[in-house]
Amino acid sequence: MTDKMEWQGQVGSSWAREWQRTDRSFAPLTQRLIERIIVAGDAERIADIGCGAGELSIKLADALPAADILGLDISSDLIVAATERGSGRSNLNFAVADAATWRDPHFAPDLLVSRHGVMFFDDPVSAFANLADSASDKARIILSCFRSPAENDWAREIATLLPSAPASDPDAPGPFAFANADRVKAIFAAASWSDVAFEAVDFDYVAGSGADPVADALDFFGHIGPAARAIRLLEGDAQTAFVSRLRELAEAHLQDGAVRFAAAAWIVTAQKSFIRSAA
Ligand SMILES: C[S@@+](CC[C@H](N)C(=O)[O-])C[C@H]1O[C@@H](n2cnc3c(N)ncnc32)[C@H](O)[C@@H]1O
Fold this sequence. Notes:
By secondary structure, the protein is an alpha/beta fold.
C-alpha cells in the first residue's frame, strides 16, 4: 500500500529524484498511451492526474500545441521537478493538488489522462466522481495502470525476496489497486463514467542500463518501489542478505545490455456519463 501521506513525503521525494529512471521503466507504455491520446482527437483542455515529474504532460504539450495541459500532483517535490522540466512551454502548467477534491472553475478538462497516477485514492469512487464533476460534459478519460502482480515479473519476483508479510488487501491504495478490471468498471460506473474499455499492454520494464546495468538496477530498486521499502525497514545482516538476493535477481534479468522485467498494464478509457448509479 502507498497512500497520500507517503506521496506527499518521502516516496514523492524519491520519485522526484528518480524521474529519469522511472520514465525509462515506463518508456514503451508511455509511447502507446500517447498514441491513444493523440488518436482520440481534439481535446482543448487536458488534465494529467497524478502527473508526477511530468513526462506525459510535457510530451502532450509538445504533441498537441493547440491544447492546454495541466499536470496535477499531490507531491510538491514532484511538481517542482515537473515545472522545471516543462519550463518554456506556454500551453503547460503544473499545480500541487489532491485530484480527489480538485476543482478549477477556469479549467474544466475535456480529457483526463494519467500514467499510473490514479491507483492511490482512499475512496476511488468519490475521487472519480469529483473528476467527473470537474470536467466538461463530453469529457473522456485515457489512463494507464498496472495489471496484477502475477503478470508483472518485477513485482512478483521482488516479492519472493521479501521477508514474509501478512497478506494485504489487493484493493488497498497502491500500484495494483486498479489491476482488477471488474473493480475498475464498478468504480467508474458508480462515479459517472461509462463505456469503460481496457487495452492490455505488455512491455519491457527496464530497471537498469548503461555501463553497469546491474548496479544501475540495484540503485533504482534501492530508491523506488517495494525493494526500497524493504531496504528501509530491514537492518544489519537481513538488509545485506536482501540486497545480495536483489543483485542475483538483477543479474538473472540482464539481457542485451539492460536489466529487463516483463511488465503488464491496462490502458483504460471511459466517457463521462450523465447518470450516476448507486455506489
Ligand atoms: C506511480 S506515480 C506516477 C507518476 C507519474 N504519472 C509518472 O508516470 O511518472 C503516482 C503519482 O500519483 C500521485 N498521487 C497520488 N495520490 C494523489 C492524489 N490524491 N492527487 C494527486 N496526485 C496523487 C503521486 O504523488 C505520484 O506522483
